What we know:
By secondary structure, the protein is α+β, with helices and mostly antiparallel strands. The chain is about 30% helix and about 20% strand. The strands form 8 sheets. Strands 13, 16, 17, 18, 21, 22, 23 and 24 form an 8-stranded mixed beta sheet that branches. α13 (about 395-405) runs antiparallel to α15 (about 460-470) and α20 (about 575-585) packs antiparallel against α21. The protein starts with a helix and ends with a helix. Mean pLDDT is about 90; it is low at about 1-20.
Amino acid sequence: xxxVLICLVFLAGCGDVWNDPYPVGERGQNILxxxxxxxxxxxxxxxxxxxxxALFTQQVYEPLLQYHYLKRPYELIPLTAxxxxxxxxxxxxKFTVYEIQIRRGIRYQPHPGFVAxxxxxxxxxxxxxxxxxxxxxxTRELVADDYIYQIKRLAHPRLHxxxxxxxxxxxxxxxxxxxxxxxxxxxxxxxxxxxxxLAGVERIDSHTFxxxxxxxxxxxxxxxxxxxxxxxxxxxxxxFEQAGMAEKNFTLDxxxxxxxxxxxxxxxxxxxxxxxxxxxxxxxxxxSDGESEDRGKGLLADAGKTxxxxxxxxxSREKEGIPYWNKFLQGYYDTSGIGSDQFDQAVRVSIEGDTxxxxxxxxxxxxxxxxxxxxxxxxxxxxxxxxxxxxAGERGRKLRHAISIAFDVEEQISIFANGRGIPAQxxxxxxxxxxxxERDGMNPLVYxxxxxxxxxxxxxxxxxxxxxxxxxxxxxARSGAPLVIYFxxxxxxxxxKAVFDWYRRQFEKLGIQLVIRDTDWNRFQEKIRKGxxxxxxxxxxxxYPDPENFLxxxxxxxxxxxxxxxxxxxxxxxxxxxxxxxVKNMANSxxxxxxxxxxxxxxxxxxxxxxxxxxKKYSLRHSWIANDKPNTMARNNLKYLKIDAQKRAGLRAxxxxxxxxxxxxxxxxxxxxAVPAVIGYRRRERMxxxxx
Length: 692
């Protein structure tokens, strides 16, 4: 009995250990705790593109440029480059040249590839390794050849870069290099890209190189801010090509090598991944300017101080949302997204539509950050369709406008996104040049300006347009047949039924029958490629913050059915196309804004899309996190964040105090249950001791 009670008391005193998921040595330090759900597939910068991959690659790799952390609209600034390269047109516009100079003194993270003896490892030595960092480590300075090597890797026959096709159109000789590398490639042998020249990329000196493009492509400079154009040292490439490395997942896809503020020191994508401060990082000053409200939010308190502020970032894999959410509330994770199941617990929305955290969150000091993403989702009308497309002429235009009014995007956002989104008024997303705010940005063909905000036109207006289109009450005025519209989409699960039912109700307002044809992704894509659709839904995330990256989705020559371009609606308007050719190569200016306004006016009138939703991202952070500002164009934000580890430790202890009363209750119960047994035992002993 005494031993049981002692154990119970001991466990009660150690109650906080039961809850804390981190080893004792990792508590109370300058560490950020986060999680991931989806396993990153590629960490090699030539192949990495997904958001969950960028979470890691953009902390390790440093491209030439980056986006200013605080300024909006997004603004490019130098990172490893001395300055933003300016295009120089040669041969009457046939080519454009960018000369790029990189900063001196930048060094790579410690890595075994920089040690000569590690380039000739025996197979048994490789087999004994648990991580590459068990070997002697070295480093060297970043040079221009490292960027040249990475650009060549875009054409590597064993790699699959999502931007190779686009870059092959512009970078002189990249397509030819790909053909030569394919012939030179031999399995089991390292393909040394230094031995293969690339006509459009030239080394000027140790820290300067030149890129030559076919024609003009002003958006090229945005690609220089992506990991695709981050440096890769040839030594790392050769190191990972040794026998036995791939079998142990010792590749650039698992162990990135960069010059950034952090290095990946632990990679177990089934459990946890760890980024630690790169000891060779040169340091970078925190921004000294931003938007007008940033100073009031404390986002400039660390202006000019050397980054990064955090020593280590631990990502733990959480396969389910509920355990992750509970650990966040306990303080064991520093930041959190908000799932649909947690939305009502975390966020309250006022009658005016303003959002804030609930009293429960506010009591814990948890803060809410919101940002509209540079993306859009839409419902497209196939321009080649005889009923909803251009072939229907004015009838088709009025039909599209009627459906656009009836399709209540505000209700869609409220029901299916917990209010996390804003109705699109055209093709361009917020935070992108060309996007108009307030009344200037309203689509007057779908909305009216009422009491200082846009209000969707009444269903009566839509019905009137439908009648003018020749379909009164949803029936063909000539034949009396009901109007049937076909909607193609991808089946994602049982949860889609509610969405599909809602879609049908939008069309039923007009008496139109909507037939939903759900299929798998491959079949869906095939139908779009062949133009065998009538209406369908799609979305687009900006590659870079330029209006061209949205307007090209409606550019006639890029029709999906005719040229396999990104214009999935197959929309064509010669006036729009002519303006696009002028706008795409212009610098941002009042003149460019005027032309964009005209383009938006044209597509609103034609209505090839039901202008859908610009999603809104909500995230929560604890009060001990500083300098957190959403950035939808980049994921290199970890170097800016700051943690008050002492405050976190105090609040964790306060929120996770062990409950002693259950222990005491159990102890009393054990004592109470033991008393009768003890009394009975002593009675039997006394009776046994009496003489017969």
